[in-house]
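User:
Hi there, any thoughts?
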Amino acid sequence: MNDITAGAFFSFTLAILLLFAGKGALARVNVLRQYSIPEPVIGGFLCAMTVATLYFVFDIKITFDVKVRDILLLYFFAAMGLNADIKSLLNGGKPLLILVCLAAFYIMLQNSIGMSVAAAFGMDPKAGLMSGSVSLIGGIGTTLAWAPTFVDTLGINNAMELGIASNTIGLIFACVVGGPIAQHLMKKHSLSGNNEQTLDIGQSYSQPSEMVDSYSLLFAWLRLNWALMLGYGINLGLEHVGIELPLFVSCLMAGILLGNRLYTIVPKQKVEGSDRGLSIISDICLGLFIVMALMDLKIWELSGLMGYLSVVMSLQIVVSVLFAVFIVYRLMGKNYESAVICSGFGGITLGSTATAIANMSAVTKQHGAAHQAFIVVPLVCGFFVDILNAIAINFFISL
């Protein structure tokens, strides 16, 4: 086995090239655009498949240094907060509560599926939690955090491998189911998109490009750095009182505060084009984050678990799609906004907050803005779900 490690600079440069490849493919292949497949997914998946081929066929193992993706995620969520309208957030109180309740129910359902399939394969039923909300709704961070408990306390020695493999499969499908879900709902229920082309993330495909000068882009960057600094401070303050939240949630909260209450610190209205610059930076950061997440997938780690994983992940994916189409859509309002939220539901239940936003962004670029969806989903994903998931995992472990 020949091991090759790509450094941070090369990995970042490759991610940029792959994002261009994804944008080019989306422009040329109508079916990708029709089903709103996110641009970074195309390039990132191409890289993952190439790396897997080199591993299995040529016995070459390539790994990438992708640590920079963590700061990209912080910039992205800070930008979301700065773009958020507090009035929309307050108006979204009822949808927020409904989606939190749906997420809580789905965590229990997802874990029940994982434990049932594990028991059917003669495994410890609690091992199925690693193919449930630990790795899927929780993501890779929750997987890494909980795996030692499963190994040391429950004696499930392959817990880490199960969790990483399930997260890998879930992340792949989370990136591709969102667009088709939204397209199906819009076609079946004759929904029209929002004619408003000012999007929360990115720019509409039908909207002409708007020029942004270097000064407005630089000022947008300054606003983002202010939000990150405040986000770090909020995170430290919460940790001091015993509350632990992902850092990106603190940066989202900081962005909302700066964008809606503290204009005297960051007077955004004084620089024309700053909001457009903010949208450009956030779109780039999200795209590169998704590309680098897919680049880092080690598909060969799935070998040896394919029987169990094929069954449990097939069920998890099918149930996620059906739950979004028949339950989430109806309870979230049966309109265009709810269809966009459903497109992000696969990201919530199979991948991560970033994949949920990427799915919704791909849909809104084609069909128009969905402001409430971009407030409700990140808050549910980044704040409430982490708390609910921790409670649920502790409950199932104690059974």
The chain has one domain: 68-398. The chain has a mean pLDDT of 84.
